[in-house]
Amino acid sequence: MRLMRRKRESPEIPLVSTADVAFLLLIFFIATTVFSIDEGLPLILPARGSSIVRVSVKNVARVVVHEDGTVTVDNKAVPVESIAGIVRRRIAENDKLVVSLETHPRCRYGRMVRVLDQLKLASATRISLRLYTPETG
Amino acid sequence: MILDKMPRTNRGVVSTIPTCTMGDISMLLMIFFMSTVIFRMDNGLPISLPRSEAGQHVPRENSVRIWIDADGRVSIDDNIIDISDIEPVISRKLLRNPALIVSLNTDKRCPYGIVSEAIDYLKNANAVRVAFMAPRIERGGSLDE
Description:
The structure holds two protein chains of two kinds. Chain A is α/β, with parallel strands linked by helices. Chain A has helices spanning 18-32, 83-93, 109-121; strands at residues 39-44, 60-65, 71-73, 76-78, 98-103, 127-131. Chain A has a five-stranded mixed β-sheet with strand order 4-3-2-5-6, with helices on one face. Chain B has a single domain, classed as Nucleotidyltransferase, domain 5 (2-Layer Sandwich), CATH 3.30.420.270. Chain B contains four helices and six strands; from the N terminus they run H-H-E-E-E-E-H-E-H-E. The relative contact order of chain B is 0.17. The interface between A and B is large, with 40 and 50 residues. Strand 1 (39-44) of chain A pairs antiparallel with strand 1 (56-57) of chain B, so a sheet runs across the interface.
């Protein structure tokens, strides 16, 4: 008896959908990519050798961040979240207002940034950074 | 000829834009970007930045990063340096690029005294443009210190 020889089919990997998969991945990554950008609180420091400007006491809002993190505005203890409102009001009353931000050397930096953030929220442009020592107070 | 006398029609021919190569193109683009992408690694110190609400975009092009960790160690350009070396290093960089912005990446647990010292050295180096790096919080996020 003569047996029929079966024709062997060459094995193939189906590649038809590869393009669709690639396109799908491309769209996924385009849609989900987040470009990392640097964000911060910019400040202009006084230049070296710049003369000391004397400011009248009535034009100064003295914000002090104490060692334990409590904040006082002109010697009055206030919650941190309210600083923006207070300073905004003070600037509306007096557009020459200079905010003197004094921070205790042992206070956490995060706390000082929180207060500086509030000043930025209040659109305060004249900010002076100082180190608070009980003697200056 | 008979054929010449017959009216010519375009019937049966559908104009299409060939899209069968789209997949190949997208695959090519994907492979190109996958092979050329360079992940930007920040090799500074392990720090935890404070967050802010009023954070502004700080351009990277003109900026130099100073890293200060919770223990007060200072790093610039992947080198741990003494805090007093901020002044000469930044002065040299300012000579090359006067529009330099110094971005201070400081750990939120760092005592402010160290940051203040760093600011003093920056003032001495005449680096007036400084940014306290603090990424903006997402909507509904909390400002932990």
